[in-house]
Design a protein that fits this description.
Protein name: Hydroxymethylbilane synthase
Shape: globular
CATH class of the largest domain: Alpha Beta
Largest sheet: 5 strands, mixed
Enzyme class: transferase
Helix content: 25-40%
Strand content: 15-25%
Subunit structure: Monomer.
Catalytic activity: 4 porphobilinogen + H2O = hydroxymethylbilane + 4 NH4(+)
Low-confidence stretches: 41-55
GO molecular function: hydroxymethylbilane synthase activity
Strand order of the largest sheet: 2-1-3-10-4
Mean pLDDT: 91
Oligomer: single chain
CATH architecture of the largest domain: 3-Layer(aba) Sandwich
Amino acid sequence: MKPLRIGTRDSQLAVWQATTVQDLLQKAGVASELVYMKSEGDVDTVTPLYALGVTGVFTKTLDAALLNNRIDIAVHSMKDVPTQLAQGIQQTAVLKRASYKDIFVYKHNADFLNDFSSEGTIATGSVRRIAQWLNRYPNHKIENLRGNVNTRLRKVQDNDWNGAVFAAAGLERIHLRPEKSIDLDWMLPAPAQGAIMVVCRDDDDYAFESCQSFTDEATALCVKIERDFLSALMGGCSTPISALADIKESEVFLRGNVVSPDGKAKAEVEKKIALAEASKLGIVAAKEILLHGGQAIVDRIRSKGLTADGEA
């Protein structure tokens, strides 16, 4: 059997994720090799993600390579994957989740965050983070921040900003989390943040079976619930929508929100359900939040055309 060809973006973090999958395949007795590519989101590191106007900005290059039989599996940060997979592609594994949290990397100090009326300049390229940040700190200015994690960390030092928002998992996996950083426990993450997804072609039974052994079932259920919540609200668009599902003993607890792009309006939902009945939790929670202030916010988001997937 030929080695499985693992498609990956060529950033340090993406290669780490793909190498992790390669190591898991090796433990399962499956040979593999890495195939490096650049996504559209890697080539254009200036335009804000919401302005690129494409779906799957970080994933569609690998999807095309899969469908054209240039690779056999692709490894993605799951929060970047559209909720509707491309036709002909299927999920084959979800790895155990790392930290789901967002963190604030600050340049000098973070004391100003204790004052909600403070002024400051914060960098992020994510409309979800912008919306939640402005909801909490309405006097802050937001600067666009793009590029891989190494580039973005360097930009924090090179610019006159107070700091920038990152995903904890991205920095911690490659041991780049600075000492000058704090967890943003108040910020709900993107659906599936901290999880890694592996996909293959629908008709590739060997690739599918090769990855089954390292799926983490608890993570797979939680991210499915979160992505169902996102899909039911916006049809898979990456927007100011956040969700976090957590299994505690025999129950699943879901928190979700949708925030207007300017941060001025927010709708929230919290639901708890028995583990055995949790498969539809994301859809149920989405319907509930729409009835309690979410519909007006979603309509506003659609009218603004914020439809690009992905955030780094």
